[in-house]
């Protein structure tokens, strides 16, 4: 079975082709028109998807060395995400499936992130714990059986990725914040400033990053412009370390609580090399099987959507043409 995957939930336009065992292609076009605005402009994102999606699909088919008539199914993200962006991908998938007379299925974007490791290799044995850290989501998910999920922890305010973006804005570093903060942090001391590690003393597994962002704001405001410039690397490193400490501690706590020995890290923030190294070290110390997708599979991409779609279509699942986008879809 050859499945085409389509991902247009935010500001990446992506298409991929997978078969039973391999990802044959995964093309991602990142929109750059949002940089000057310091964040994603929904209308611009929708227009860019309209312009780019047909070309991206053709590129994915060409790289996979398949014809459009060879496709056996199509999978597309229908939520969560920006309504207009989701709609472009959903309508494209519906039209393509109808014209080719093939089944199609809508996929939860969060499920795609959890299954991103399966786009390049087999996922860990069940049960496993997954931490999804992206711009809009920070979730701890227990996976007892294939495609069955239980959220055991979530952020009560800002997601980790949001905190990175907002901190970069506070420091005047630009957008997107994640890569910029990481770049400055490499030259700084992560223990230079004692920023708060929120809710680590709580027994539950939820997260909070709003207070950390506010602490960075107050600290930056206490400095002169020259002092802030001189200390920007230390501020970035200390902020990043505070996020990492919370993510690692809560995840290790959940693994111990549920007696789970398999762990997946995924989502756009999982591209952060310091975060990946921290989890690798902690999992090794605690004898946990640690998996993390390749960096290009951590950010929004169609390969992860196609892989989930392939599994579900093989199980006989499909979506009706009445399916609509769900911007606030939960896992």
Q: What's the gyration radius in Å?
A: 20 Å
The tally of helices reads 10
Oligomer: single chain
Strand order of the largest sheet: 3-2-1-4-5
Count of DSSP strands: 10
CATH topology (fold) name of the largest domain: Nucleotidyltransferase, domain 5
CATH H-level name of the largest domain... which superfamily?
A: ATPase, nucleotide binding domain
One letter per element, helices H and strands E, the order comes to: EEEHEHEHEEEHHHHEHEHH
Strand content: 15-25%
Quick check: average pLDDT? 95
Structure description:
This protein has 331 residues and is an alpha/beta fold. It has two domains: 3-115 and 298-314, Nucleotidyltransferase, domain 5, CATH 3.30.420; 125-292, 2-Layer Sandwich (Nucleotidyltransferase, domain 5). The chain has ten helices and ten strands. The protein has helices spanning 42-64, 83-100, 109-114, 160-170, 177-185, 210-221, 225-257, 273-285, 295-298, 302-314; strands spanning 3-7, 12-18, 23-30, 73-79, 104-108, 128-133, 138-145, 148-154, 262-266, 289-291. The strands form two sheets. Strands 3-2-1-4-5 form a five-stranded mixed beta sheet, sandwiched between helices. The protein has a five-stranded mixed beta sheet with strand order 8-7-6-9-10. α4 (160-170) packs antiparallel against α7 and α5 crosses α7. The longest helix has 33 residues, at 225-257. The chain is globular, with a radius of gyration of 20 Å. The two termini are 26 Å apart. The mean pLDDT is 95.
């Amino acid at each position: 079975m050859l499945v085409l995957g389509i991902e247009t939930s935010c500001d990446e336009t992506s298409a991929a082709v997978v078969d039973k065992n391999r990802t044959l292609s995964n093309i991602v076009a990142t929109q750059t028109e949002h940089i000057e605005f310091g964040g994603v402009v929904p209308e611009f994102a929708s227009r860019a998807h309209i312009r780019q999606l047909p070309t991206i699909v053709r590129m994915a088919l060409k790289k996979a060395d398949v014809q459009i008539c060879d496709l056996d199914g199509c999978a597309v993200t229908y939520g969560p995400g920006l309504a207009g962006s989701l709609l472009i991908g959903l309508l494209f998938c519906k039209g393509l499936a109808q014209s080719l007379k093939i089944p199609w299925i809508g996929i939860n974007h969060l499920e795609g992130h959890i299954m991103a490791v399966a786009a390049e290799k087999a996922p860990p044995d069940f049960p496993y714990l997954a931490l999804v850290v992206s711009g809009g989501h920070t979730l701890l998910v227990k996976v007892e059986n294939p495609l069955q999920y239980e959220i055991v922890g979530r952020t009560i305010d800002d997601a980790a990725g949001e905190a990175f973006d907002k901190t970069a804005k506070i420091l005047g570093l630009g957008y997107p914040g994640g890569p910029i903060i990481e770049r400055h942090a490499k030259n700084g001391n992560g223990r230079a400033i004692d920023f708060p590690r929120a809710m680590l003393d709580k027994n539950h597994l939820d997260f909070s990053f709003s207070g950390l962002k506010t602490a960075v704001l107050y600290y930056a405001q206490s400095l002169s412009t020259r002092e802030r410039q001189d200390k920007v690397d230390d501020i970035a490193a200390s902020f990043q370390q505070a996020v990492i400490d919370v993510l690692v501690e809560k995840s290790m706590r959940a693994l111990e609580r549920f007696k789970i020995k398999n762990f997946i890290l995924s989502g756009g923030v999982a591209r952060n090399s310091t975060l990946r190294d921290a989890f690798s070290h902690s999992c090794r110390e605690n004898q946990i099987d640690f998996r993390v997708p390749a960096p290009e599979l951590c950010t929004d991409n169609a390969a992860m959507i196609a892989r989930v779609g392939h599994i579900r279509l093989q199980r006989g699942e499909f979506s009706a043409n009445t399916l609509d986008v769900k911007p606030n879809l939960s896992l």
